Amino acid sequence: MRRLFLTLLVSVYWVGFSIAPSDAHAMMQKLSPEQRDEAIKYGKRSVRTEVPEFIKEWSVDNGNNGFAFIYTEFLALAFAARQAALQSSELNNFDIEDTLAKSSGKFVFKVSLFGNTDSFSKDYTAVIRVGDKTFPSTYWNNPPGETYENGKTKPAFVADSDFYFPSEGIDPNSVVLLVVQDKDGKEVSKFSFNLGKMR
């Protein structure tokens, strides 16, 4: 059930919104033509791969404490190529440029958390910590939670939030700690992302 939930979660996110080369030692931003080709190939050859496995490189699963993944330019383009391949089509140049433009210059984190009411996350915000520096999100979206597993579990609701941060000034080799907070600034959950191991 958990695996099915993650698959549906990522599929919904995408509707709304391989092997790394030997020199890939940091999260790829401003993709080169070669890196674009690699992302498209990754997406196309992964059409039969379960979504949780497809995004494993970019995700952190904390079990009952939540699930999160980060959209890099590479992953965004790979997703677009995957969706096109599922529809037996190819990305054209406009599709590629539009996808990259939407993800350029920012970190976009997709976070799922669990609570007891459909409004438990409405006032949540987030920061990212890199070393001794803290960066607040510049935009966030907290839609109402939806019933999880037919409301038969406790907690019974899952809420899917988006948190946006500018990527300028953040070392793509760094470890980034995403911290979700309530309206009083109390820590709700945190997720550690090693950007140096992501494309």
Task: Explain briefly what this protein structure is.
This protein has 199 residues and is of the alpha+beta class. It contains five helices and ten strands.
Order of helices and strands: HHHEEHHEEEEEEEE
Helix proportion? 25-40%
The biggest beta sheet reads: 6 strands, antiparallel
State the separation between the terminal residues, measured CA to CA. Answer: 29 Å
The fraction of residues assigned to DSSP E strands is 25-35%
Tally of separate domains: 1
Mean pLDDT over all positions? 86
List the uncertain runs: 1-5, 11-16, 18-26
Contiguous helical run count: 5
> Using only CA atoms, what is the Rg?
17 Å
What is the number of beta strands?
10
The chain-level structural class is alpha+beta
Shape: globular
Describe the structure.
The protein is of the alpha+beta class and 199 residues long. It has one domain (2-197). Helix content is 28%, strand content 29%. It is built from five helices and ten strands. The strands form two sheets. Strands 1, 2, 3, 6, 7 and 8 form a six-stranded antiparallel β-sheet that branches. A four-stranded antiparallel β-sheet has the order 5-4-9-10, with no helix packed on it. The radius of gyration is 17 Å and the shape is globular.
Write the layout of secondary structure elements.
Layout: H1 2-16, H2 33-44, H3 51-54, E1 59-61, E2 67-71, H4 73-86, H5 93-103, E3 106-115, E4 125-130, E5 133-136, E6 139-141, E7 146-147, E8 157-166, E9 175-181, E10 187-194
Antiparallel strand pairs: 1-2, 2-3, 3-8, 4-5, 4-9, 6-8, 7-8, 9-10
Helix pairs in contact: 2-4, 4-5
